[in-house]
Write a structure and sequence with these properties.
The chain folds into three domains: about 5-85, Outer Surface Protein A, domain 3 (Alpha-Beta Complex); about 90-130, no CATH class; about 130-195, no CATH class. Helix 7 (about 140-150) packs across helix 8 (about 185-195). It has helices at about 35-40, 50-60, 65-75, 90-95, 100-115, 120-130, 140-150, 185-195, and strands at about 5, 10-15, 20, 30, 80-85, 130-135, 155-160. It has about 200 residues and is an alpha+beta fold. The chain has a three-stranded antiparallel β-sheet with strand order 2-3-4, with no helix packed on it. The relative contact order is 0.11.
Length: about 200
């Protein structure tokens, strides 16, 4: 495990001994009492170190034996940690696609807020790649929906529409104005390109 405090949870000090993770009432949790060394140690929970290295760093910071493990366990139980190497083989394959991961970073951050187990969010994101969704009708709403699904990492978005693109089908995030006059296959190709 390479623990990381979930990046979607802003961290702030409520007082000298209490750290708050997250700002919205639905996600905010406090941790206390926190001494100065433990507060500094929290900065190391950024996913760049595994538990053995974190234990070493804890010893260098004069944290008591077992303190690092107890802290990591407490944060994980509270749903505040993610595992940057978790999620299984599909997640590992997704991590290798840097451009895709950069684009899906907001989705991953959001998913981390609704999952509790470290590595679960990226596992769910990777599972999207195996989904197939059919969108019937690629007008104003269908085109935007298809582009959003594709952009969110859904593996295959099958757009079914044999009609011609009309001026009222054009929408931000969907079909561009130059698509007017295209027929079904051209429409689907434009949507695949728009969805990345």
């Amino acid at each position: 495990m390479h623990p990381m405090v979930k990046p979607a949870l802003r961290r702030g000090w409520r007082d000298l001994n209490t750290v708050q993770f997250g700002m919205t009432p639905a996600h905010a949790l406090t941790l206390g009492p926190v001494d100065t060394a433990t507060g500094s140690f929290l900065e190391l929970l950024n996913g760049t170190r595994g538990l053995p290295l974190l234990r070493e760093e804890g010893r260098r910071m004069d944290l008591p034996d077992g303190h690092v493990d107890r802290l990591v366990e407490r944060l994980a139980r509270a749903g505040l940690l993610d595992d940057v190497r978790g999620g299984g083989a599909e997640a590992d394959a997704l991590r290798e696609k840097k451009e895709v991961m950069d684009r899906l970073a907001p989705d991953l951050a959001s998913l981390s807020l609704v999952t509790r187990e470290p590595g679960e969010a990226i596992g769910r994101l990777a599972a999207r790649r195996g989904l197939r969704v059919q969108v019937r009708g690629a007008g104003r709403v269908g085109a935007v929906l298809a582009a959003l699904l594709s952009g969110a990492g859904v593996g295959e978005v099958d757009v079914r529409d044999g009609g011609r693109v009309e001026p009222w089908d054009v929408a931000p995030g969907g079909l561009p104005a130059e698509a007017v006059g295209d027929w079904g296959a051209g429409r689907a190709g434009r949507l695949r390109r728009a969805g990345l």
